[in-house]
Amino acid sequence: MEGEELRRSEADTIDLLNQFERILESDPQIDEVGFLHPSQFSKLNKEAGHSSPSSDDNTVLRSADGNSVFWNRDHKLGISTQVLFPLYEAAKHAFMAASRQYKALNSKSDVFGDEKSLYVSLSLDNSFESDVMKHSWALLLLTSDFGTAWHSRYSPFSFSVQ
Is residue 42 part of a domain? Predict the structure, then answer.
């Protein structure tokens, strides 16, 4: 039973990260990020003119257990303090995995291979580079002092995974 709960928890955390990254992709003009106590979500809705959580027109996004975890409106993003640590852990894990895959692909790329394998290699390279950028963005919004993530965004061809 404990293993099943752990897998469900990991799946919920991955879903949480995916939801967070979808918010970032859907609103690239987010100019403010704040970490909120869960009790603050209802106050934000009232200030935004919503009387109940059900009428919030996707301003408040909820986790699988029904708790409010994100608030997004007018390029402002609020993240519940209850999900900060699991969200950070998921973002860090996803970033590090994508970084390792990207680095491994670049170190093994065969420039002298046939045209088809070179095309597949370049396609995978772009996919992993995109994943590195997406996950580093999420990670840096949660903690701005993660040097490897900063370096990967500065020059995706020169970062190192530690």
Answer: yes
